[in-house]
Amino acid sequence: ATAGLPGGWKDLWLSVPGNTEENGYTFDGTRNTLVTSRSFRSRLDRMYFYSAQSEEAARCTFDEIAIVGQQKIADGLWPSDHFGLLTTFTIREEIDKW
Q1: How many Cα atoms are found within 13 Å in the side-chain-facing hemisphere of 83?
Q2: Which GO terms describe its molecular function (predicted)?
Q3: 29: left (phi > 0), else alpha (psi -120 to 50), else beta?
Q4: Per the domain annotation, does 2 fall within a domain?
Q5: CA distance 98 to 94
Q6: Is residue 63 part of a domain?
Q7: 53 in helix, strand or coil?
Q8: Helix (H, G, I), strand (E, B) or coil at 87
Q9: Hey, which bits of the chain come out as E strands?
Q10: Do β-strands 41-42 and 84-91 pair in parallel, antiparallel, or remain unpaired?
Q11: 96 within some domain
Q12: Domain that holds residue 17
Protein backbone atom coordinates (compact mmCIF):
# COMPACT_ATOMS: atom_id res chain seq x y z
CA ALA A 1 0.00 0.00 0.00
CA THR A 2 1.15 3.51 -0.67
CA ALA A 3 -0.78 5.19 2.13
CA GLY A 4 1.59 6.03 4.92
CA LEU A 5 4.79 5.83 2.89
CA PRO A 6 7.43 8.14 4.35
CA GLY A 7 8.36 11.20 2.30
CA GLY A 8 10.62 10.59 -0.68
CA TRP A 9 9.42 7.00 -1.25
CA LYS A 10 7.58 6.10 -4.47
CA ASP A 11 5.56 3.03 -5.38
CA LEU A 12 7.18 2.34 -8.75
CA TRP A 13 4.15 0.64 -10.33
CA LEU A 14 1.85 3.56 -9.55
CA SER A 15 4.44 6.13 -10.65
CA VAL A 16 3.94 5.09 -14.31
CA PRO A 17 1.06 6.90 -16.07
CA GLY A 18 -1.77 4.45 -16.75
CA ASN A 19 -0.74 1.93 -14.10
CA THR A 20 -3.34 1.27 -11.39
CA GLU A 21 -3.89 -1.12 -8.52
CA GLU A 22 -6.18 -3.16 -10.79
CA ASN A 23 -3.83 -3.58 -13.75
CA GLY A 24 -0.90 -4.38 -11.45
CA TYR A 25 -2.13 -7.60 -9.81
CA THR A 26 0.78 -9.90 -9.01
CA PHE A 27 -1.42 -12.49 -7.28
CA ASP A 28 -4.40 -13.32 -9.48
CA GLY A 29 -6.64 -16.34 -8.93
CA THR A 30 -8.63 -15.60 -12.07
CA ARG A 31 -5.53 -16.24 -14.22
CA ASN A 32 -3.07 -18.33 -12.21
CA THR A 33 -4.25 -21.84 -11.31
CA LEU A 34 -1.69 -22.11 -8.49
CA VAL A 35 -3.78 -19.61 -6.52
CA THR A 36 -6.36 -21.68 -4.64
CA SER A 37 -8.92 -18.89 -4.26
CA ARG A 38 -10.12 -18.36 -7.83
CA SER A 39 -11.62 -14.96 -7.00
CA PHE A 40 -8.71 -13.46 -5.03
CA ARG A 41 -6.72 -10.77 -6.86
CA SER A 42 -4.26 -8.35 -5.33
CA ARG A 43 -1.11 -6.36 -5.91
CA LEU A 44 0.77 -8.16 -3.14
CA ASP A 45 4.22 -7.61 -4.62
CA ARG A 46 5.53 -4.06 -4.82
CA MET A 47 8.74 -2.21 -5.44
CA TYR A 48 9.54 1.09 -3.80
CA PHE A 49 12.19 3.64 -4.67
CA TYR A 50 13.59 6.33 -2.41
CA SER A 51 14.46 9.46 -4.34
CA ALA A 52 16.78 11.23 -1.95
CA GLN A 53 18.07 14.73 -2.62
CA SER A 54 21.77 13.96 -2.67
CA GLU A 55 24.49 13.93 -5.29
CA GLU A 56 24.79 10.14 -5.20
CA ALA A 57 21.03 9.59 -5.42
CA ALA A 58 20.86 11.90 -8.45
CA ARG A 59 22.90 9.32 -10.38
CA CYS A 60 20.11 6.74 -10.20
CA THR A 61 16.89 7.09 -12.19
CA PHE A 62 13.95 4.74 -12.58
CA ASP A 63 13.34 3.64 -16.18
CA GLU A 64 10.56 1.05 -16.25
CA ILE A 65 8.69 -1.66 -14.39
CA ALA A 66 6.95 -4.72 -15.82
CA ILE A 67 5.02 -7.71 -14.53
CA VAL A 68 6.73 -10.96 -15.55
CA GLY A 69 5.89 -14.66 -15.24
CA GLN A 70 2.33 -14.25 -16.49
CA GLN A 71 2.52 -17.26 -18.79
CA LYS A 72 2.89 -20.95 -18.09
CA ILE A 73 6.29 -22.49 -18.67
CA ALA A 74 7.23 -26.04 -19.74
CA ASP A 75 4.62 -28.75 -19.19
CA GLY A 76 1.90 -26.15 -18.59
CA LEU A 77 3.21 -25.18 -15.16
CA TRP A 78 3.20 -21.71 -13.66
CA PRO A 79 6.60 -20.49 -12.40
CA SER A 80 4.99 -19.35 -9.12
CA ASP A 81 1.67 -18.45 -7.55
CA HIS A 82 2.85 -14.82 -7.74
CA PHE A 83 3.77 -12.92 -10.87
CA GLY A 84 7.10 -11.13 -10.63
CA LEU A 85 8.16 -7.52 -10.99
CA LEU A 86 11.10 -6.56 -13.17
CA THR A 87 12.42 -3.04 -12.76
CA THR A 88 15.13 -1.23 -14.68
CA PHE A 89 17.20 1.64 -13.33
CA THR A 90 19.95 3.69 -14.93
CA ILE A 91 22.95 4.51 -12.79
CA ARG A 92 25.14 7.14 -14.37
CA GLU A 93 28.83 7.49 -13.67
CA GLU A 94 28.59 11.26 -13.69
CA ILE A 95 26.47 13.00 -11.12
CA ASP A 96 23.71 15.26 -12.44
CA LYS A 97 23.72 18.71 -10.95
CA TRP A 98 20.53 19.20 -8.99
Answers
A1: 24
A2: 5'-tyrosyl-DNA phosphodiesterase activity; metal ion binding; nuclease activity; single-stranded DNA binding
A3: alpha
A4: no
A5: 12
A6: yes
A7: coil
A8: strand
A9: 9-11, 27-28, 41-42, 48-50, 60-68, 84-91
A10: unpaired
A11: no
A12: 9-91
